[in-house]
Amino acid sequence: MNNSKIILVSHGGLAAGMKNSVEMIIGEKDNLYSFGLQPGMVCDDIINELKNLILNTDGQVIIIGDIFGGSVCNGATTLLEYPNVKVIAGMNMLLVINVLMSSGEISTEDTHRMIAEAKEGMKVIEIIKEEDESFF
């Protein structure tokens, strides 16, 4: 994505860990940022830093938050006043990779498709034991 910024926001170190893990897979990205709300901080501390990033870009800004309804994601929604900002809740690695690998501006339709793909990647993995096949 040219002239875009992808910003991961979370409670604690999740966003930083996600950034690190994603970059292990697809390489370092100079347009990927992470911010985590640490003990003793208030959400406005992060939101003010995000405003600076938004004001210093002429491209799209995608903010991916950890959990819908959480304080960090709720704070990020206040940035929707900027026309170049999208906020997505429910961060996971596949979603972040898909956003980073996109070319051009991400539409609302693209966002819904990426979320569906990320959900599809979530599976319960179980061992299935076969019934005893003896004849006696």
TrEMBL record:
Database matches in PANTHER family: PTS PERMEASE-RELATED-RELATED (PTHR33799), PTS SYSTEM MANNOSE-SPECIFIC EIIAB COMPONENT-RELATED (PTHR33799:SF1)
A Pfam family: EIIA-man
Record keyword Repeat present: no
Domain PTS EIIA type-4 span(s) in chain numbering: 3-122
The protein, known as: Mannose/fructose/sorbose-specific phosphotransferase system IIA component
CDD domains: PTS_IIA_man
Localization, UniProt: Cytoplasm
Species in which this protein is naturally found: Breznakia pachnodae
Keywords linked to the UniProt accession: Cytoplasm, Kinase, Phosphotransferase system, Sugar transport, Transferase, Transport
Entry annotated with the keyword ATP-binding: no
